[in-house]
Amino acid sequence: MLPRVIVVTGPTASGKTAAAVELCRRIGGEVVSADSMQVYRGMDIGTAKPTIEERKGIPHHLIDVADPRLPFSVADFVALARPALRDILHRGLVPVICGGTGQYISALVDELVFHSAPPDPNVRARLLEEAERNGGAAMLARLAGIDPEAAARLHPNDRKRILRALEVFETTGEIVTEMNRRSRSAPREFDFRTFVLDPDRPSLYHRCDLRVGRMVELGLEDEVRRLEEGGVPRSAIAMQAIGYKEMAAHLAGECAREEGIEAIRQATRQYAKRQLTWFRAMKDATWLDASTAGPDSVAESIADGIVT
Question: Which domain range does residue 135 map to?
Fold first, then answer.
């Protein structure tokens, strides 16, 4: 039998972090974060990075592993995540993947093999310049002409993945979709059990609004200011994250503070909808109603589902 790995995912503010921690306490597990922005050091408030208190003594892997001035790809994530899974299993514990970045989770669950396509600084710089000049929609349209299947999974605002797909094609002559298709035929290493937390929409959007309010109270504006003062440019991939981009616009005098905060609220709700769309395409996932259930109840449901 393949070693079992549990995936706890769901849209932003669905309560997956607390549920994953409680699950780890029940089954003897450790968390492997699957959040594309919690990897960055110094980005704590805007990413809702779990505090030491919220982790409740459960080790969390793949948090604070990247410099926000530099890009971090799904291939980088997988290269760190797989050894973390093996290490946790080797110590007799259960890996619990927790996060809402659908592409990270799909790459792990599908056990994609990333072929050698190292970043090309010249190609990347040119694509970044073109994206700044023409916008995400134009770059996505270009990708659709090359790799329509990959383009259909992406949003025009997902500049990082659009540009990476274009870069891979320009440097290798292969499309990402074909690389992924080839890798899925490789032997499996893990038995993944995926659980998606699914609050009803009014509850989800209310939680999103509460989360944004809490981030502002905790000092999101100051966090963005510290990042900029520390040398992280607005053009960095990390600064395109929801909350950071809008607050950076406010700090640059491009919008009023409350206008920026409202833009964060709207972007957060829209992101939650896109996440749910991605998760619905995942095969063999178990969906759990998380509208009113607390983390203990959700963890119990997942623990029961693991043995059935």
Answer: 121-183
